[in-house]
């Protein structure tokens, strides 16, 4: 049974006064409903409209823009005698030349003077090298003389010993003869012609005379031996002194030979340096003579493109006049990155390079070590194209590590005390279920061009405010832009 059919009998049983009270109650709730609907409509028409987005997982992208330097990886340097006055340069950087084309002209009078000076320098270096290469030897004269003197001293010692020995032998002979005379006198019979006493006295006198002669012979032998010993000692001392002199002379000769050998080694090294300098000087002279034979004009050694030119009229020449590319090389890019930019560039990062109307992509191949300011230099090889040496515009988009919560960078807000995002929270109010703005503190893990990685009291279901038609703050009631 329908509700109206159930209520109708009860309504008919009411008295008129009850009918009036029931009608008043019905009208009150009708008015309340109308006012509620009007209030909600008015509130909905005036409350801010916001655009929301839930956080996503991914990486933060960061753009880097800088100016790099394009250089040529190949090229052959064309050399020129340094220090000559350049009178003309009929070519320019980037120009195509053929082998034998004039690259620069020089003052011929100055060229002649340079040739004369170079010849004199070459002769000086060659003479110096020859003198240094001769070497030297130690002088052995003092040692040889000392050796000869030692040999004479040895001979003198031998002679002294022989002379002394001869004297001692003679003294021994005389002493032996004297001893025999004493023995003969003692054993001689008495003279029968003399009386007994006289004969006895005569014999005694002869024995005493022989004994005296023996004593004299003993003394002579002692003196001879003593003299021989003293002479031998003196001769040996003299020989030792001469030997010491000889040893000193030999030591001095040995030292001198070492010093001479060291000096000869130094001289040979110096001679090698002088010879190398002479060879370099000869090459410089040959270059000057070749320039003179061409009438003071520097000719292109090969056909190609001038990718660097360091010669200017009115200035003196440098040893390398420039670089000539024969088409066998390529172009490289060097990009200096400050400390902040270097954090986003790694080996493999793709760089987009623009130079005039030429553009192309190149991957970073190497990064230098940071300098004192934290800056690094990135290097890359450019693709084939009509590049030229010089500056170029470079930009790159670097991707960071994968992050769990990524929000638009515009959603991250900051006041004096915190960093936060605004999010929506559904709350029951007198007007019904409404979206109320709340502030959620976050930590920014990484910031990019358009997005930021955050961490905080939010997840992938949090409705983060990313835009609104008017300013909003925590506590505001808002309406979600359903069309976004």
Automatic annotation (TrEMBL):
Residues 178-188 have a biased composition (Low complexity). Residues 214-259 form a coiled coil. Keywords: Coiled coil. GO terms for molecular function: efflux transmembrane transporter activity. Residues 172-204 are annotated as: Disordered. GO terms for cellular component: efflux pump complex. Signal peptide: none annotated. PANTHER family: HLYD FAMILY OF SECRETION PROTEINS (PTHR30469:SF15), MULTIDRUG RESISTANCE PROTEIN MDTA (PTHR30469). This is Biotin/lipoyl-binding protein.
């Amino acid at each position: 049974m329908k509700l109206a059919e159930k209520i109708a009998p009860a309504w008919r049983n009411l008295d008129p006064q009850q009918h009036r009270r029931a009608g008043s109650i019905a009208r009150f709730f009708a008015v309340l409903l109308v006012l509620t609907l009007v209030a909600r409509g008015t509130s909905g028409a005036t409350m801010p409209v916001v655009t929301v987005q839930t956080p996503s997982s991914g990486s933060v992208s960061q753009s880097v823009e800088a100016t790099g330097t394009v250089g040529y990886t190949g090229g052959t340097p064309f050399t020129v005698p340094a220090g000559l006055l350049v009178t003309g340069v009929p070519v320019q950087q980037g120009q195509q030349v053929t082998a034998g084309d004039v690259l620069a002209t020089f003052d011929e009078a100055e060229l002649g003077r340079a040739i004369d000076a170079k010849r004199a320098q070459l002769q000086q270096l060659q003479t110096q090298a020859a003198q240094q290469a001769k070497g030297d030897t130690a002088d052995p004269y003092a040692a040889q003389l000392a050796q000869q003197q030692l040999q004479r001293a040895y001979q003198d010692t031998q002679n002294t010993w022989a002379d002394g020995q001869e004297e001692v032998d003679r003294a021994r002979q005389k002493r032996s003869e004297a001893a025999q005379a004493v023995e003969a006198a003692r054993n001689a019979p008495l003279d029968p012609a003399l009386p007994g006493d006289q004969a006895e006295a005569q014999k005694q006198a002869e024995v005493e005379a022989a004994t005296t002669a023996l004593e004299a012979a003993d003394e002579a032998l002692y003196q001879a031996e003593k003299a021989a010993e003293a002479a031998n000692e003196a001769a040996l001392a003299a020989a030792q002194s001469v030997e010491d002199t000889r040893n000193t002379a030999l030591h001095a000769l040995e030292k001198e030979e070492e010093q001479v050998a060291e000096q000869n080694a130094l001289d040979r090294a110096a001679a090698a340096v002088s010879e190398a300098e002479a060879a370099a000087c000869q090459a410089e002279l040959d270059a000057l003579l070749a320039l003179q034979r061409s009438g003071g004009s520097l000719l292109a050694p090969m056909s190609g493109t001038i990718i660097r030119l360091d010669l200017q009229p009115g200035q003196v020449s440098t040893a390398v006049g420039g670089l000539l590319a024969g088409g066998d090389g390529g172009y490289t890019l060097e990009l200096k990155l400050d400390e902040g930019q270097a954090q986003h560039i790694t080996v493999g990062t793709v760089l987009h390079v623009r130079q005039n109307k030429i553009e192309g992509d190149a991957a970073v191949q190497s990064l230098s070590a940071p300098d004192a300011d934290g800056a690094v230099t990135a290097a890359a090889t450019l693709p084939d194209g009509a590049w030229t040496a010089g500056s170029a515009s470079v930009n790159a988009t670097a991707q960071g590590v994968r992050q769990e919560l990524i929000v638009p960078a515009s959603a991250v807000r900051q006041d004096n005390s915190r960093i936060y995002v605004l999010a929506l929270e559904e709350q029951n109010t007198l007007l019904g279920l409404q979206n109320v703005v709340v502030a959620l503190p976050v930590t920014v893990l990484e910031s990019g061009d358009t997005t930021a990685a955050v961490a905080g009291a939010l997840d992938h279901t949090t409705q983060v405010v990313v835009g609104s038609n008017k300013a909003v703050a925590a506590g505001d009631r808002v309406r979600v832009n359903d069309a976004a």
